């Protein structure tokens, strides 16, 4: 078992990572929080798989548990599901000390975290991520949100969990496509921050994707450490945190134009990263060969990397409305080389169209 800390002063919190970490959930929560009751939020796929194990561990540590299960999938990040969690908290007469524990992927974490941030102006929140994406990305950093019917992740806030418990063994039941989508974010950390991690991914790819704990656990640990460091330096995305959006500006365009749900977020990020790396090379910012190296790793993993030909006008409209844009001009995170990125405020539209093959 490995533990690392997200360093945010009084709001610092531990991340426990390891094979079988779920068995320690009750003890970890008990060590951090005073409460003796909790609300366990999960989804219809994860609850039957890991709900009982989570409850057993919490009960053994003396907790009384109320359970709340949401339908799996992105549509659950809705105001109705948010209200249903408030209802559950009211029904159990939860007080200010009653933690909300999110057991599941990013959907459960984002929704339950936002619900926890609002009930009685904030009750303790615990993340128990069960997808690779949630373990390396969404469970760390304190972004919570639900979706507006017309815009993803627009209703939310920064609300840090009190602890994170990531059991790598839960990834065994994850669909391969979901695993790979999470792996795209893992590759991202290598590109933006850590050339050694990237080389490790190239070397140990098969063992990592086979979920060999000796290969996988250190990688998840490293990704969390990178995210923790970036978030500690820039919690509210004033500057540095934007590097986590590498591959995401173009990735979001693919998600939006392909129709959410058609392409998984991580798949769109894979396409976006290769295109952003090519853009960097074309602008003379990026070291030649970086894009090809990123593409090769993603392709070997089984991720799609060919940027789909999107209608030029719609692509540009989406890019300029991207909420990460500054003054309407797309803001790109470009790779200087593997392990280092640069934020460019303004990129020539024609070049973006050319690199992405827009029509
Ligand atoms: N807060 C953040 O910083 C942040 C960062 C990245 C993404 N996100 C959000 O996270 C969400 C995506 O997260 P996700 O990819 O984890 O999606 P998800 O929560 O929808 O999980 C994907 C699917 O896997 C299933 N699943 C989860 N764990 C499983 C397991 N161990 N075994 C079998 N099936 C399992 C789920 O039921 C679901 O069907 C998006 O809503 C995105 O906006 C948030
Ligand atoms: Zn992402």
For CATH, the homologous superfamily of the largest domain is named as Dehydroquinate synthase-like - alpha domain
Largest sheet: 7 strands, mixed
CATH topology (level 3) name of the largest domain: Dehydroquinate synthase-like, alpha domain
Approximately how much helix is present in the residues? 40-55%
- Please tell me what the overall shape is: globular
What does this structure look like?
The protein is α/β, with parallel strands linked by helices and 359 residues long. It has two domains: 2-173, Rossmann fold (3-Layer(aba) Sandwich); 176-356, Dehydroquinate synthase-like, alpha domain (Up-down Bundle). Helix content is 47%, strand content 18%. It contains 13 helices and eleven strands. A seven-stranded mixed β-sheet has the order 1-2-9-6-5-3-4, sandwiched between helices. A hairpin with a 2-residue loop joins β10 (332-337) and β11. The model has no long low-confidence stretch (mean pLDDT 94). The structure holds nicotinamide-adenine-dinucleotide (NAD) and zinc ion. Nicotinamide-adenine-dinucleotide is lined by residues 43, 45-46, 49, 72-74, 77, 104-108, 110, 130-131, 133-134, 137-138, 141, 143, 153, 170, 173-174, 178, 265.
């Amino acid at each position: 078992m490995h533990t690392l800390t997200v360093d945010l002063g009084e709001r610092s919190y531990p991340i426990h990572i390891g094979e079988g970490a779920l068995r320690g959930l009750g003890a970890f929560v008990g060590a951090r929080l005073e409460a003796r009751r909790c609300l366990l939020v999960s989804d219809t796929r994860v609850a039957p798989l890991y709900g009982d194990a989570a409850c057993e561990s919490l009960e053994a540590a003396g907790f009384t548990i109320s359970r709340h299960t949401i339908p799996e999938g992105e549509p659950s990040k809705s105001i109705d599901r948010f209200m249903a969690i408030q209802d559950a908290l009211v029904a159990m007469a939860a007080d200010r000390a009653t933690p909300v524990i999110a057991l599941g992927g990013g959907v459960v974490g984002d929704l339950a975290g936002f619900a926890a941030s609002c009930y009685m102006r904030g009750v303790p929140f615990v993340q128990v991520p069960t997808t690779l994406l949630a373990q390396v990305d969404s469970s760390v950093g304190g972004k919570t949100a639900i979706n507006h019917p017309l815009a993803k992740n627009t209703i939310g806030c920064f609300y840090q969990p009190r602890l994170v418990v990531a059991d790598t063994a839960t990834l065994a039941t994850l669909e391969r496509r979901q695993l790979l989508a999470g792996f795209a974010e893992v590759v991202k950390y290598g590109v933006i921050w850590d050339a050694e991690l990237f080389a490790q991914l190239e070397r140990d790819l098969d063992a990592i994707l086979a979920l060999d704990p000796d290969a996988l656990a250190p990688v998840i640990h490293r990704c969390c450490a990178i995210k923790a460091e970036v978030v500690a330096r820039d919690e509210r995305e004033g500057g540095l945190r934007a590097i986590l959006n590498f591959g995401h500006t173009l990735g979001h365009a693919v998600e939006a134009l392909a129709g959410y749900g058609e392409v998984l977020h991580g798949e769109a990020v894979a396409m976006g990263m290769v295109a952003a790396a090519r853009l960097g090379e074309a602008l003379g910012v990026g070291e030649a060969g970086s894009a090809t190296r990123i593409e090769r790793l993603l392709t070997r993993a089984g991720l799609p990397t060919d940027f789909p030909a999107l209608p030029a006008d719609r692509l540009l409209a989406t890019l300029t409305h991207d909420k990460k844009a500054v003054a309407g001009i797309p803001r790109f995170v470009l790779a200087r080389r593997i392990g280092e990125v640069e934020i460019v405020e303004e990129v020539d539209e024609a070049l973006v169209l050319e690199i992405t093959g827009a029509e």
